[in-house]
Amino acid sequence: MAENQYGRQSIVFKNSPEIFSAYSTVGSKEGKGPLKSWFDLILQEDKIGQKTWEEAEAKLLKDTIVGAVKKGKTDKHKIDVIFSGDLINQLMSSSYAIRELGIPFLGLYGACSTMSEAIMMSAAFVSAGYCEAAAAAASSHFCTAERQFRMPLAHGNQKPPSAQLTVTGAGCVLVRKPDIVLEQPSEEGERVYVSGGTIGKIVDMGIKDSNMMGAAMAPAAVDTLTAHFRESGKEPEFYDMILTGDLGAIGKSIVIDSMRKKGFDLSNNYEDCGCVIYESNSDAHSGGSGCGCSAAVFCGYVYNKMRIGELKNVLLVSTGALLSTISTQQGESIPGIAHAVAFTTERKMV
Amino acid sequence: MAENQYGRQSIVFKNSPEIFSAYSTVGSKEGKGPLKSWFDLILQEDKIGQKTWEEAEAKLLKDTIVGAVKKGKTDKHKIDVIFSGDLINQLMSSSYAIRELGIPFLGLYGACSTMSEAIMMSAAFVSAGYCEAAAAAASSHFCTAERQFRMPLAHGNQKPPSAQLTVTGAGCVLVRKPDIVLEQPSEEGERVYVSGGTIGKIVDMGIKDSNMMGAAMAPAAVDTLTAHFRESGKEPEFYDMILTGDLGAIGKSIVIDSMRKKGFDLSNNYEDCGCVIYESNSDAHSGGSGCGCSAAVFCGYVYNKMRIGELKNVLLVSTGALLSTISTQQGESIPGIAHAVAFTTERKMV
Lengths: 350, 350
Hints:
The structure is a homodimer. Chain A is α/β, with parallel strands linked by helices. Chain A has helices at 53-71, 92-99, 114-127, 142-149, 213-232, 248-261, 273-276, 291-307, 325-329, and strands spanning 10-12, 18-26, 41-42, 81-86, 105-107, 133-140, 165-166, 169-176, 192-198, 241-244, 270-272, 288-289, 313-321, 336-344. In chain A, the strands form two sheets. In chain A, strands 1, 2, 3, 4, 5, 6, 8, 9, 10, 11, 13 and 14 form a twelve-stranded mixed sheet that branches. A two-stranded parallel sheet of chain A has the order 7-12. In chain A, helix 2 links the parallel strand 4 (81-86) and strand 5 (105-107). In chain A, helix 1 packs across helix 2 (92-99) and helix 5 (213-232) runs parallel beside helix 6 (248-261). At the A-B interface, helix 2, strand 5, helix 3 and helix 9 of A face helix 2, strand 5, helix 3 and helix 9 of B.
């Protein structure tokens, strides 16, 4: 095994790259949900004054990145690289958002697993000394996703109860090496470090119904969680919170059942971002989905819970359904993937 | 600056991650071009017996990865992570190719800059000790790209002379830490190391014509080349060959002119993958394009030229046009990006 690896899929960041800023933006519907007090910005109007939904998503993402930079009391010229992705064909949202910022850009695509992939990459680059500071970002927008993956909004199509609602939202974190001078807990609260991650494999159990994405992604989450516990030697209880990305109610129940069969009890500390972002009576069917779901929930809710000391160790497992309209039209099943990133407020000196 | 950085955009791999295998596959048309003797596999028939062109591209990519694994005398279970991408919406080719291989997967999207992004990531992960061995791969296919980005093949549309032809092809490299035991040149030839890279910024000069992609991408290539020379302190003459990804004849001439104005003479050692992959009378208009263009040219031609000692230092600058059909339909201009990766056969001990 390599020196910063603790298993084939799992890497460790020995020098504790620190998330020194996190910013979240959500749409108007998400801003009425149970987590509304945790988000940095709630849109009053989801088109944000733009001509098209795609421009709106690009602006949502750009404003979120700029928000993270301001909140981190830094400057965009001090961010050496941004890892970002979204759901829109050819990463249209990320490309048009970052075009205006002049930050060196490495594009990622992991469907809704993009935020954990991006955080892992940014921590990996900071920890290895490839940059001083890195950003990780992801976005999704209900209206761009509906148009691209499903039906024109004006159709007003009905959906089955297993369907999920693409979150209008974005998140951005900034990562740097921990500051020795600021080693002590600051008045702003606990510091949040990225301690490691587990890279997912593609898992495809043959589900072909794009209204059953939670069920399509759940086996990938189970595979990555199992690999993470096996390789890290940690038990689920080590974490104050384990969060999957956007499995929704059906996918979440599959994860709990499947993990129990493998000997892991997740009943006490496991939640799914897609299950907590909307009110239960909000017509969101099985729950939220989209890159922006785990991105906004992590950057808004989880990060701030860690900052105020209510959570010490968190595992974020963003989950992605690697389908496209072409693959669906061609009758292909839906490959799933999940990447895990571990966060801690307890920095280990090495 | 961080310890493995020599400028905001540029990183250095001090322990010389080694490319221990490279495999290239091209389609039948590319297999008639001037580089035909350098490719590992030339398809007789570009659908490779599959039902759809998309399945054909996935098979092309999978067979190329498997080819690299076999050629490297290793096993797919010994590859800890694969960085891969393609042009098809939601990385359909990579997802379906890698689904069957069981290799932990981090998806990338950089349009046609994907191969240099993937090689940089795999070298970064190996060099930092996050894995023992990593793979980097990318593919494109004329028939999937035409269908997705342009017109149905059956239309037989004409194109202007500035248009480029998407290469049917794929490349895969395997990267590991250099083997101390095998330090001396082996009977197989020189060893090829990844010495560093320069991460590109998005550059958009306002071109909106998707039949002018070389011109749209050229300013990004100029920006990255300039950053690379400025930050690394190297002159163009340091390299035996500087290769852009797929600018074609028009983009290549813009790069030469623009770099001359900035004081860099590229007239002696600069080539473009898109200009060398087809015969000049092959109806390829301005030249080849697609992720597979620089991937196959690097893995076939360049890597093997380095192995036989004809090239010592090479800079690969794959170039991407970050457009989508949606952005084109909405009248947006085409953002370009280029990432540079430096290769050497002269390992520096550190």
